[in-house]
């Protein structure tokens, strides 16, 4: 297999909101989608957009500024007007489930089977409705990453066969010694806690050391390290799902533009590279807007194109 790169962008809802509100003649008249298409046309970039089902109440508290129009928005409001255009571009532009919404954190850490199935199918059905089945991809990254065993079973029964996984040496939670970086997370961790729900220490995006939570989709360090830079996956015997740490080292919005080339260089030893990012940093209305987001996307696509990598979608590993 030739060298491949997988690129996905999490947390999509705002660009779809703009599409529904602005009603352009083409999806590529919206600046975000135009930016993606330009990178595809120039460098062969393929990209997977991971979708929320709805916007979030807390966005009104200074996170996004859409003026007076702060009403709730859901994927059910995305028109099917552009369905043929989505399908025509589905060889390089895919859509996938990510979560019902952004908060609370770790929505799927201790999720029940029925809750997981409902969340997944709400997004999947809307994608098929407005963008067509060709646009759907089922290489899945759950928002905040961990999923309970019952949640993984539900995803498998819904047709998902490969799931993004965490990696590290998991350990049991000890209320006296476990360092929780955000106190509000503790309640989420303990609510309906499942036997597979544990802790591990990681470096988020290769930059920020943090104690995180893990569920069924977790790889021990030994297995995860062997997968690094390869096309290997691990089949979970209890659920049948394949687990892989999709994106261990490059998240575009976490790094300044000027440092990214050296990060890219460090990946050239690998046959498999994954790059992640988040949609909101492209939006001027977002409180943490990064005006160089488009430049980051394009510089990444150009670098790996020029170094012989072919863009692909991670669910191709199990087809």
Summary, kept brief:
This protein has nine helices and 13 strands. The protein has 319 residues and is of the alpha/beta class. The chain has a single domain (4-167, 213-318), classed as Alpha-Beta Barrel (7-stranded beta/alpha barrel).
What is the total tally of β strands? 13
Q: How large is the count of helical segments?
A: 9
Instruction: Quote the beta fraction.
Output: 15-25%
Mean of residue pLDDT values: 94
One letter per element, helices H and strands E, the order comes to EHHEHEHEHEEHEEEHEEHEHE
Global shape: globular
Low-confidence stretches: none
Please compute the radius of gyration using only Cα atoms.
19 Å
The domain count comes to 1
CATH topology: 7-stranded beta/alpha barrel
Oligomeric state as shown: single chain
Measure the end-to-end span: 14 Å
The CATH class designation is Alpha Beta
